[in-house]
């Protein structure tokens, strides 16, 4: 299946191809156009093809060391998620969580 995606923000082409359960999307290069096509065409198209979502959240903290943050996730209480990790970066701790919704 081939689908041309409308680009009302410019003239660069955008399209989606689907074959054997795989999807390839070609987005335009100019930032103004890629943002428009993503929000109005590509994202709704992909959302219509899925049966579940994965939600990501990032929490940035400072003043609390990485070792103090370990063990604060709820992954041990939720067998199907969330997946959780933390990263110490530039004096801050970035906590990233993922769960199927």
Quick overview:
By secondary structure, the chain is α+β, with helices and mostly antiparallel strands. The protein has helices at 31-49, 66-69, and strands at residues 2-4, 15-19, 22-26, 54-62, 83-89, 92-100.
Number of strand elements: 6
Low-confidence stretches: none
Which structural category fits the helices and strands?
A: alpha+beta
What is the succession of H and E elements? EEEHEHEE
Could you characterize what this model shows?
With 101 residues, the protein is an alpha+beta fold. 23% of the residues lie in helices and 38% in strands. The protein is built from two helices and six strands; from the N terminus they run βββαβαββ. It has helices at 31-49, 66-69, and strands at residues 2-4, 15-19, 22-26, 54-62, 83-89, 92-100.
Question: What's the structural blueprint in terms of helices and strands?
Answer:
Layout: E1 2-4, E2 15-19, E3 22-26, H1 31-49, E4 54-62, H2 66-69, E5 83-89, E6 92-100
Antiparallel strand pairs: 1-2, 2-3, 4-6, 5-6
Features:
three-stranded antiparallel sheet, alpha+beta, elongated, 101 residues, 38% strand
């Amino acid at each position: 299946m081939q689908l041309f995606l409308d680009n009302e923000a410019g003239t660069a082409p955008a399209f989606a191809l689907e074959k054997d359960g795989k999807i390839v999307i070609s987005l335009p290069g100019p930032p103004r156009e890629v943002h428009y096509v993503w929000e109005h065409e590509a994202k709704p198209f992909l959302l219509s093809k899925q049966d579940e979502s994965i939600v990501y959240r990032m929490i940035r903290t400072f003043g609390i060391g990485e070792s103090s943050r370990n063990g604060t996730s709820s992954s041990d209480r939720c067998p199907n998620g969330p997946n959780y990790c933390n990263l110490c970066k530039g004096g801050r701790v970035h906590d990233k969580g993922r769960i199927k919704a």
